[in-house]
Write a structure and sequence with these properties.
Elements lengths: L1 H15 L10 E7 L3 E2 L2 E2 L5 E7 L7 E10 L10 E9 L3 E10 L24 E10 L2 E8 L4 E10 L2 E9 L11 E15 L5 E11 L4 E9 L1
Antiparallel strand pairs: 1-4, 1-14, 2-3, 4-5, 5-6, 6-7, 7-8, 8-9, 9-10, 10-11, 11-12, 12-13, 13-14
């Protein structure tokens, strides 16, 4: 665990040691979603903006990036602020990703009494670490993620059916509740799609939506969003 954390810190330290010109983001953007639902679980309430950017490619197949989710409603109502740093390498037949998840302080308050992630008790390089492997098996995409400290496993299979994206996810918890309340089971069945709305001759607005059902929690969600 410590080795994984130190590897990510070293990777980003190398990037930040470059000149200002070198560290310009290779790509960046943001999604605005009606609610934040991840792997069958909703985080916070109401809409959220989810910005991201990737750093310049150091070597073929390697991607370093940052992703975040920030609620657009009242921060004092127990909302979830998230900032993730990741390193991913594409080996061809499969890809391997290490993600460092950091959140606001445990009681959900951010902004009123907490000004930075460092002060919140969830330091930037000391979050929850997950190792994820993904591969394509014909028409099936397979993702396996494992949180090293939480000892939580997630397995998802996805495909396209009738032009819609279908995914089925299975979660298994360690000692504490994470995906399935401390147990294991199907936690994510989602069906989604996307389309572009033409604004001008040169620009179309990407829209996406999905219906998500968590069989274990018997909870259902409908999410729509747009990308910029």
């Amino acid at each position: 665990m410590k080795l994984i954390k130190n590897s990510i810190i070293l990777s980003f330290a190398v990037i930040l040691s470059f000149t200002t010109t070198d560290i310009k983001a290779q790509d960046f953007g943001a999604d605005v979603v009606s609610s934040y639902v991840w792997r069958g679980t909703q985080f916070g309430t109401g809409p959220a903006v989810q910005p991201w950017f990737t750093l310049p490619e150091l070597t073929s197949g390697l991607e370093l990036g940052v992703w975040g989710s920030f609620p657009l409603s009242d921060a004092a109502s127990g909302q979830t602020y998230e900032l993730d740093m990741y390193a991913s390498y594409d080996f061809g037949p499969f890809a391997l990703t290490i993600t460092n998840y950091t959140f606001n302080n445990p009681n959900g308050v951010y902004g009123a009494t907490v000004d930075t992630y460092e002060d919140s008790g969830y330091e930037l390089f000391d979050g929850d670490m997950e190792v994820t492997a993904s591969a394509s098996l014909g028409a099936i995409g397979l993702t396996v993620g494992y949180f090293t400290d939480l000892e939580a496993l997630y397995v998802e299979a996805g495909t396209t059916v009738g032009g819609m994206d279908l995914a089925i996810g299975y979660g298994s918890d360690g000692d504490g509740a994470f995906y399935a309340g401390g147990d294991s089971g199907l936690v994510n069945v989602s069906l989604g799609g996307s389309k572009d709305i033409k604004i001008t001759d040169d620009y179309s607005l990407p829209l996406f939506g999905s219906f998500i059902y968590n069989p274990d929690a018997e909870a259902a969600f409908m999410v729509v969003g747009m990308s910029f």
